[in-house]
Amino acid sequence: MKLSTYEPDALQPGARSLSYGVFCWLNRHITVLRALGALLRRWPSVGGLFGMVARASAVKDVLTRTRSFSNTAHAANMVSGDYLIGMDPGPTYSADRDLVHARLAALDVPADSDAEAQRRIKDLSKPGAAEFDLIDDYLMWVVFHAMRPLFGDAIGAVVAGSATNAAQGDVDEGLQRQYMLEIRYVAGQLLAGNLATLDLRRRAESCGDALQARIDRVTGPIGAAWGVKSSSEDIERNAVGLAWISHPVTVQSGALVMQELLGRQKVYEQLRSRARALGESRVWTDPDFRKAVRNHVLELMRFRPIFPLLARDVPRDTEMETGARSNAGCPGGGKVSLLSIAALFDPSAVPQSGRFCPNRDWGSEDALRYLMFGYGYRQCPARDYAVDILTSALIGLLTLPRLQLARGEGKAIAYDGPLMLCMRMRIT
C-alpha cells in the first residue's frame, strides 16, 4: 500500500491551485464523492493501495483505533493553536475534554436557540424583507446566542476582546459580527485542509493570531466565569478552541442542511405544511414535530456532511481493514483517508441507503447515523447540542413563507474555497 507522505508546502503554486480547486469542486458536488465512494466500496483493495477506506466497517475500525490512526492529521490546519480535535489521547486531552463537557452542560438548548430563531424570524417577516442572507442574517446569530453560555459571564469580554468593554460586547452587534467573522476564517482553514492556497492560509493565520490575542487579554474573566483554577495557558487553549470550532462549524452545517432541503422541494413542502397546520405557537412546542424536524436535520446532514473526507496520521507501521480479503499495510509517517460520505451510504450498514428516509430504523448501527460528528470515543462532545440548535433554526425557517435561492443578480451561494460565505434567500 502506498500512503501519501507529501508535504503540501512543497507543491508548486500551479499544482497547489489545481489540487485545491479539485478539492473544493468535489466538496460542492457531493454526489461525485458519493459515486467515488461507491466504487471504492465495491473494490476496497483499490482504495487500500492509496490509503483510502470507504466501507462503513473499515471507517469505524480506523476511527476507533486512536493509537494507530491519530487525530494529529488536523494539527497543521489548526492555526490558532492545539485543541482537542487535533490531540492524541492523554492527560491533557482528558482534562480538556472534561472541561468542554462542563461548559456544554451550561447551554440551555433548545430554549436559547428557539428564542433567537423566533426573534430573527420576526425581523425577517416584516414588510419589505423579501431577501436575506441565510448565514449573516440568521444562522450565525441563532448559533451565537445558543452558545453564549459557553463563556458564561465572560462572553461580553470575549466579544470585545477587553474586560473593560465587556458590557459593550454583550450588546453591540457590530462587535459580535466582527468576532464571528474572525473565528469563521480560523475554522475555514480546518475545512480547507493542507491544500489551501498560501494566501488563504495566511489570512487564516492572521485571524488565528488575532483570536489568540483576544482570548489572552481576557483569560482572567474567562477563568472566573468558568470557576476553574487552571493555568492561563490551559484556559486560553480551551477558550480559543471553543470559540473557533463550535460556532462556525455549526453555522456551515446549517447552511448545508438548508441547501440540501431546498433541493428536495417535496420534502420541504411537507415540512412547511406540517408547520402551518400547527400554527405559530405550537410549532415550537409540539414534541412530535420537533422530533420529525430533528430526524430531517440528521438525514439532510447525511446527504451533505460538512466533513465528507477525513484524514488520520499513521504514527507507526500498522495495517487497516478495508473490506478486501486481506488488510492493507500502513507504513508509519503516512496518512490514511476516510470517505465518511461513502460509509454513510454503505448498504451493508444502512438500510436502503440511497433513499432519503428521516425515520429510518438504524438498529444496531444507530451510532453510524452521527458519523458526521466522528465515531467512538473521539466523537464530538457537542453532537446533540449542535443538532438541537440546527433543529431550532430549521423550525424557524419553516414558519416563513416559501423560500427559494435568490438567483437574480449574482450567485445565490458564494464560496470562499469550501467555506460557504453567503446564501441569499428569497421569500416568495
Automatic annotation (TrEMBL):
<dbReference type="InterPro" id="IPR036396">
    <property type="entry name" value="Cyt_P450_sf"/>
</dbReference>
<comment type="similarity">
    <text>Belongs to the cytochrome P450 family.</text>
</comment>
<dbReference type="GO" id="GO:0004497">
    <property type="term" value="F:monooxygenase activity"/>
</dbReference>
<dbReference type="GO" id="GO:0005506">
    <property type="term" value="F:iron ion binding"/>
</dbReference>
<keyword id="KW-0349">Heme</keyword>
<keyword id="KW-0408">Iron</keyword>
<dbReference type="GO" id="GO:0020037">
    <property type="term" value="F:heme binding"/>
</dbReference>
<dbReference type="GO" id="GO:0016705">
    <property type="term" value="F:oxidoreductase activity, acting on paired donors, with incorporation or reduction of molecular oxygen"/>
</dbReference>
<keyword id="KW-0503">Monooxygenase</keyword>
<keyword id="KW-0479">Metal-binding</keyword>
<dbReference type="GO" id="GO:0016125">
    <property type="term" value="P:sterol metabolic process"/>
</dbReference>
<dbReference type="InterPro" id="IPR017972">
    <property type="entry name" value="Cyt_P450_CS"/>
</dbReference>
<protein>
    <recommendedName>
        <fullName>Cytochrome P450</fullName>
    </recommendedName>
</protein>
<keyword id="KW-0560">Oxidoreductase</keyword>
